[in-house]
Amino acid sequence: MISVKLYMLLIRASLRSRMQYKFNFFFSTAMASCVHISEFLMVALVMMRFGNIKGWTLYEVCYLYGVMMISRAIYRTLASDVHHLEKYLVSGDLDALLTRPVPVLLALMTQNARVLFAEFGQGFILLFLAIKALMISGQIGWSVIPLTGLIIVSGATILFAIGLATAAAGFWLTRIESLQNMTEDASQTAARYPLSLYPKWLQGALLLIVPVGFINYIPALYLLRHQGGIGMLLGTLAVAAVALWLAMRFWRLGLSRYQSTGS
């Protein structure tokens, strides 16, 4: 509880410092909204023209997209600079975090915090439209709403675990931007759509190596398509717990090997 209170205190301080530049905040939010809307509209227009894609309807894809966006927004809001560890390693700024009387990871997570209003807003809109349409059609019931909240939390946990493990690799590699492009950016983009669209080898990679498929696709098979039984949902929660445990172990190992740049 002390760590949670300290985390919330540091997050509030970080958010207050960023809000000193209000124009930059609102402008960046507006630009992010335009980018995310245009990305989804391209897919929506294609599906509206050609109908289902391998049996997946527009609203089902909309659901996958919304879950991924909100999960990512939670991860990037609560642990923004985990994704930017490389700059701390290259500049030697990580040394300053080591001298603070708080755990290094906690200090890193609270640096430069910002709420991704654009991603949260679009994600909730997409989920609202998708769930409403699927409930009207009788495909899903009211139980999908609390279960969706659960998989969003587990999805944010998986994304945090992937980001933390990738960041920890920086203690050996230092330059990890290209690795992050694969494990975080590219994999998240791919997982916004049904994995059944991809070849088997890529499906396996997105489920076993970088388990982004468990963020939305696997639970959606159970929630939306009633496939696989409750084990699909329980498996998702288990993957989130194991991924977080492994990432924390890898982080501690990497931190123990850290050597300052001396700058």
TrEMBL record:
Q: Which PANTHER family match?
A: INTEGRAL MEMBRANE TRANSPORT PROTEIN (PTHR36833:SF1), SLR0610 PROTEIN-RELATED (PTHR36833)
Q: Where are the transmembrane segments?
A: 21-50, 56-75, 124-145, 151-173, 201-224, 230-248
Q: What superkingdom heads the lineage?
A: Bacteria
Q: Does the keyword Ion transport apply?
A: no
Name of one Pfam family that matches: ABC2_membrane_6
Q: What are the record keywords, sorted?
A: Membrane, Transmembrane, Transmembrane helix
UniProt protein name: ABC transporter permease
Which organism was this protein described from? Paenibacillus ferrarius
State whether keyword Membrane applies: yes
